[in-house]
């Protein structure tokens, strides 16, 4: 879509296609992330579709993208950045910084008897799950980094043993949220029925860690809970109906 990408332009483009395909009076809901332009476009779209008799008068029209919300919640927690995460990030940047270093790390992998195909992953700021994948891959190659530290005097960002322990704890804490993100992002199966089971799991995990977790995990969980509760009340009741219609859960789960 050419710019501008403001709310009015998005509305006009969406409405054009809905009308062209003659489905403007058959749209029940639309899933969007939390960009402010989307809120504007949805407001205009509901008003326009109501003229055609929108289903339920558009009451359940705007569904917020659950995967995006999970991303925002975990990103909030990761603002409580542990120094060990920064060290892993810098270590991966270091070994990928030149061809000679890449060759050296491959030799260390071989000497550590690990599988080189798993590979080291660099995270990106906008995708929290890339941070989880980065930590998971780094923990797998822990012995490799320690071996490199002995061989390369210029490599100064290898985490210490207590920091590796912290990384393993953080990774274990984030694992359920990674699984939830993967489940919400599925393309070959319905996902709306997964919202309540996944969110319940996440909420229980956060409350447990805030109450009983190690201090640095507790700090992360506390930040995440504040963000979580902000979005929890903003979700659409239609997602409760989706889980009721799932034979695995039915009404008992919602109760």
UniProtKB/TrEMBL annotation:
It holds the Pfam family hAT-like_RNase-H. It comes from the Eukaryota. The keyword Iron-sulfur does not apply. Residues 185-255 form the hAT-like transposase RNase-H fold domain. GO terms for molecular function: DNA binding. SUPFAM superfamilies: Ribonuclease H-like (SSF53098). Keywords: DNA-binding. Signal peptide: none annotated. InterPro entries: hAT-like_transposase_RNase-H (IPR025525), RNaseH-like_sf (IPR012337), ZnF_BED_domain_contain (IPR052035). This is AC transposase. The lineage of its organism: Eukaryota, Viridiplantae, Streptophyta, Embryophyta, Tracheophyta.
């Amino acid at each position: 879509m050419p710019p501008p990408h403001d709310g009015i332009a998005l509305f006009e483009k969406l409405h054009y296609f809905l009308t062209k395909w003659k489905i403007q009076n058959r749209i029940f809901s639309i899933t969007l992330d939390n960009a402010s332009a989307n809120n504007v476009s949805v407001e205009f779209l509901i008003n326009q579709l109501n003229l055609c008799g929108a289903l339920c008068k558009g009451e359940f029209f705007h569904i917020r993208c659950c995967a995006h919300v999970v991303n925002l919640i975990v990103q909030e927690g990761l603002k409580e950045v542990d120094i060990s995460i920064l060290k892993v990030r810098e270590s991966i940047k270091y070994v990928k910084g030149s061809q000679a270093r890449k060759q050296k790390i491959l030799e260390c992998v071989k000497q550590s008897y690990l599988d080189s195909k798993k590979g080291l992953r660099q995270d990106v700021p906008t995708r929290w799950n890339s941070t989880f994948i980065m930590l998971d891959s780094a923990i797998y190659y822990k012995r490799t980094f320690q071996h490199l530290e002995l061989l390369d005097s210029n490599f100064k960002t290898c985490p210490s043993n207590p920091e590796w322990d912290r990384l393993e704890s953080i990774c274990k804490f984030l694992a359920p949220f990674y699984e939830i993100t993967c489940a919400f992002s599925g393309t070959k199966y319905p996902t709306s029925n997964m919202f309540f089971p996944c969110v319940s799991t996440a909420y229980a995990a956060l409350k447990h860690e805030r109450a009983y977790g190690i201090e640095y995990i507790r700090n992360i969980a506390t930040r995440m809970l504040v963000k979580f509760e902000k979005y929890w009340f903003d979700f659409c009741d239609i997602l409760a109906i989706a889980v009721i219609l799932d034979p695995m859960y039915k009404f008992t789960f919602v109760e």
